[in-house]
Specification:
Blueprint (H helix, E strand, L loop, with lengths): L1 E6 L18 E6 L6 E7 L6 H21 L4 E7 L4 H11 L8 E2 L4 H14 L3 E3 L14 E3 L4 H16 L4 E6 L2 H16 L6 E5 L7 H9 L4 E5 L2 H13 L6 E3 L6 H4 L10 E5 L9 H14 L5 H18 L5 H10 L1 E3 L4 E3 L9 E6 L8 E7 L6
Parallel strand pairs: 3-4, 5-6, 6-7, 8-9, 8-10, 10-11, 11-12
Antiparallel strand pairs: 1-2, 12-15, 13-14, 15-16
């Protein structure tokens, strides 16, 4: 089989020691060895209320498999399975991933409730599960098999609260959060981060992801005397809430969760509705203008003809790291787990290293919109130590 593939990706990785890795101008023509590709199961909610996030997760894994296959001695295949948004569907998909024996690792879904259901199965099977779910509880359960490649809520909510209070000037924020495991986790971490800053929310309300009208909640926010709104919602509900707030004439500043940094979420709103809106995220490749995240964004645009987000980039890095440890000889669950636990890995978004509990990502960014376009700019970067400082 003849493989013709041209990839141009420039990596400029900054970390202690000023090490730089460049992947550039791969023009490969020839025959790959007859060995079958290494199949990596990628469990993602492609349909349902988390379809925007799940689609980004799928694309990141597919791109990583293609890049790893092009540059390395081993071919990889991303076996993407739709988990919808039901825990039992994710469980069935995980069991299918183990039908031919325990693989070195599985990429789990972004949805926290699904990951909470899968983690005991991963422990039972002894298989590492790499995830980009931010649900805080995942790395508090004592599992040796969880490896989170998106900064957890303890990281991003610290940035979320800090920016809202220190940069925007909120003293009386209202919080609207999702009634899912993700939403409840983020709400708790956000409230704790605000408390450390001496700020107490004047109003809080949980919204189901299926809600089609949030005008009543917004009316309560207005009546509370809030001077700003903090959102921790999935992509669709985030866009719905901002739209209805602006249509109701609410001009309060809004600092949202990571769903709002997604170009696909911003595209659901008109630019003027985005005025005064900021969002936390682990990264924001579509907003970068240089460096490895920008190179990833360029490759992503060329491959999928759409804008990338942090979920795609985190999944790309997670797949790439797993591929790298497999290429280094860690082709069993035990060996892969040891490599992931003890290693430090330079990704396109950041440098990943476990804090001993499976949290691999420790950076965050804030992006903001100017009300003139759908494009966000990076307003502030946060880098935390692995112990959360």
């Amino acid at each position: 089989m003849t493989l013709r593939l041209t990839i141009c990706i420039q990596w400029k990785l900054r970390f202690v020691g000023a090490a730089t890795l460049i992947l550039t101008a791969l023009a490969l023509t020839g025959h790959r060895a007859a060995a079958e590709p290494v199949v990596v199961s990628v469990l993602a909610p492609i349909t349902g209320f988390l379809a925007l996030e799940g689609g980004a997760q799928r694309n990141g894994a597919v791109l990583a498999a293609e890049h790893a296959s092009a540059k390395g001695p081993i071919a990889f295949d991303a076996d993407v399975q739709d988990t919808t948004t039901a825990p039992d569907v994710a469980i069935s998909a995980f069991r299918r991933a183990l039908r031919d024996g325990a693989p070195p690792g599985v990429l789990g879904p972004i949805l926290g409730s699904q990951m909470l259901a899968l983690l005991p199965l991963a422990d039972q099977a002894g298989v590492p599960i790499l995830t980009i779910s931010g649900t805080a509880a995942l790395t508090e359960m004592g599992s040796p098999n969880i490896f989170r490649f998106f900064p957890g809520d303890a990281v991003v909510k610290t940035a979320h609260a800090s920016y809202a209070v220190s940069e925007v000037g909120m003293k009386r924020p209202a919080i609207l959060y999702q009634t899912t495991a993700y939403g409840q986790s983020g709400r708790a971490q956000l409230a704790a981060a605000l408390a450390k800053l001496g700020v107490r929310p004047v109003y809080e309300e949980g919204l189901p992801p299926t809600a089609k009208d949030v005008s009543a909640a917004l009316a309560k926010v207005k009546a509370s005397g809030a001077d700003g709104v903090l959102l921790h919602l999935h992509a669709g509900p985030t866009a719905l809430t901002i739209r209805q707030a602006r249509e109701a004439g609410m001009t309060l500043p809004i600092v949202a969760g990571s769903a709002m940094h997604q170009p696909t979420t911003a595209a659901l709103l008109t630019p003027d509705m985005l005025a005064g809106v900021c969002a936390e995220s682990g990264s924001a490749p579509a907003a970068e203008t240089e460096g490895p995240a920008f190179a990833f964004a360029e490759a992503y645009r060329a491959r999928f003809e759409t804008e990338p987000d942090a979920f795609a980039l985190a999944e790309y890095d997670a797949f790439t790291v797993l591929a790298s440890v497999i290429e280094a000889g860690a082709d069993t669950p035990e060996a892969a787990r040891q490599a992931l636990t003890s290693g430090s890995f330079n990704g396109a978004a950041m440098t990943y290293a476990s804090n001993g509990k499976g949290d691999m990502a420790h950076d965050a960014v804030i992006v903001c919109y100017d009300g003139q376009s759908h494009r966000a700019r990076i307003a502030k970067r946060y880098r935390f130590a692995a112990d959360g400082r």
